[in-house]
Amino acid sequence: MAKYEIIGGTPLSGEVTISGAKNAAVAILPAALLVAGKCRVENVPDISDVRILLDILQDMGAQVEWEAPGVVRLDCTQITKTTPNPVLVRKMRASYYLMGALLSRFGEANVALPGGCNFASRPIDQHIKGFRALGADVEETEDYVNLAAGEDGLCGSRISLDVVSVGATVNIIMAATLLPGQTVIENAAKEPHIVDLANFLNTMGARISGAGTDTVKIRGVERLHGGSYAIIPDQIEAGTYLAAVAAAGGNVLVKNVIPKHMECITSKLQEMGAKVINYDDCIRIRSEGRLRNTTVKTRPYPGFPTDMQAQICVCMALADGVSRLTENVYETRFFGYCTELQDMGAEILVNGKTAIVTGTEKLHGTEVCAHDLRAGAALIIAGLVAEGKTTVRNVHFVERGYENIIEKFTALGARITRTDD
Ligand code: EPU
């Protein structure tokens, strides 16, 4: 188990380049299973979730090669299994995308239930509802989901999601890509990585329209061909560095971003008093004194992302006045980090799905534990601000989703080191 040690109190300055989006990569790599041909994917972040997925694909018969840093070549022509290695599958959340991709290409899949960050109950009933609507027989056991084409075969259909779900939208898009007929997903999620997945599949010959709106249409095609595609920059990684500068102070150019994707985050940081300047593909953030209090309610895109809840909470903990932070996607997400921030001196009162955060001028370093990916990111930001030394344990959660985080923060002047316990 690795840990990070952070000596706080240094403002951040310089430039940081954002990696490819984790949540796009973990959808696009399994989507390569739909392609009987060679795919070249650029801007792939080298993070543990991606490594696990590539191991799963390789174990299933895919040819996988890192051509260069950030560039992966994949050939899923000769897939030999529709039961991916359960030990690997249980190591991460997005392995559930193997269900949709395998069902579409092979008409069957037997996938262990996924693992990953457990900050809330994370049901997959909407994914299953989608597969059933497409004609699959679905058998759920305690550990596995078995999918097979039903008596009448698999075919496009109309599905209205009961909740806006990123995972279900992605999984149904994949499942429908190679089926006869048209599939319509109503009440679809609109996150940038859903558009990215649709763009990847369309580059390979799929016919998907409406991604990024709440109605996505998929006209099934018989096969996809190989091709080359570059993943979009990571909205949440960029948001994490922006929040770090807002909290710790300084002046940083955040490069390789799509400013439009960042509006839900940058508008809040501006409201809190940080100076934000948007350029074509980068954002400068400069702190201008103490942050002001604010109100944040997490929502699916284009709302404020739940994946930035913990990081903005650190900004609130240091702001002048009382802030309100309401979580509308995963109610229990506060429990991953609020106690740890309280141990560092933050004043946070959690009442159901709202946290009341009373800003304090200082946090102090201590030993804390990351309980999930974004909670870990928030504790690092708190450590950068805190007086003295902060030790963040369980950082394997952080390394699931942040590429080269030590190198990137160090280049900005942070004093942060990684050691193995
Ligand atoms: N939900 C259901 N039934 C379902 C699916 C979802 O009730 O079948 C509910 C969930 O319980 C939740 C809401 O719908 O309340 C939204 O869940 P969603 O399906 O959108 O989440 P997800 O696909 O499991 C992805 C990201 C998460 C991110 C959420 C919300 C990936 C691999 N994961 O999860 O990312 O928090 O969307 O934006 O894309 C992270 O990166 O740290 C992370 C956890």
Note the topology:
Elements (H helix, E strand, L loop, with lengths): L1 E6 L4 E6 L4 H10 L6 E5 L5 H12 L3 E6 L2 E5 L10 H4 L7 H10 L1 E5 L12 H9 L2 E5 L3 E6 L8 E3 L5 H12 L4 E5 L5 H12 L3 E3 L5 E5 L7 E4 L4 H14 L1 E6 L3 H13 L3 E4 L3 E5 L8 E3 L11 H10 L3 E5 L11 H6 L3 E5 L2 E5 L8 E3 L3 H13 L3 E5 L2 H4 L5 H7 L3 E6 L1
The structure holds uridine-diphosphate-2(N-acetylglucosaminyl) butyric acid.
Overview of the structural elements:
There is one protein chain. With 421 residues, this protein is α+β, with helices and mostly antiparallel strands. The protein has 2 domains: 206 residues, UDP-n-acetylglucosamine1-carboxyvinyl-transferase, Chain (Alpha-beta prism); 209 residues, Alpha-beta prism (UDP-n-acetylglucosamine1-carboxyvinyl-transferase, Chain). The protein is 32% helix and 26% strand. A 4-stranded mixed beta sheet has the order 21-22-1-23. A 4-stranded mixed beta sheet has the order 2-14-16-15. The longest helix is centred in the middle third of the chain and has 14 residues. The chain is globular and about 65 Å long. It starts with a strand and ends with a strand. The chain binds uridine-diphosphate-2(N-acetylglucosaminyl) butyric acid (EPU). The site of uridine-diphosphate-2(N-acetylglucosaminyl) butyric acid (EPU) has 24 residues, from helix 1, helix 5, helix 6 and helix 12.
- First-residue to last-residue Cα separation: 6 Å
In CATH terms, what is the architecture of the largest domain?
A: Alpha-beta prism
- Determine the mean pLDDT: 96
- Determine the number of helices (DSSP H or I, runs of at least 4 residues): 14
* CATH homologous superfamily annotation of the largest domain: Enolpyruvate transferase domain
Total domain count: 2
- In what range is the share of β-strand residues? 25-35%
| CATH hierarchy, class of the largest domain | Alpha Beta
The rough form would be described as: globular
Strand line-up of the largest beta sheet:
21-22-1-23
Record field, number of beta strands? 23
Radius of gyration, rounded?
21 Å
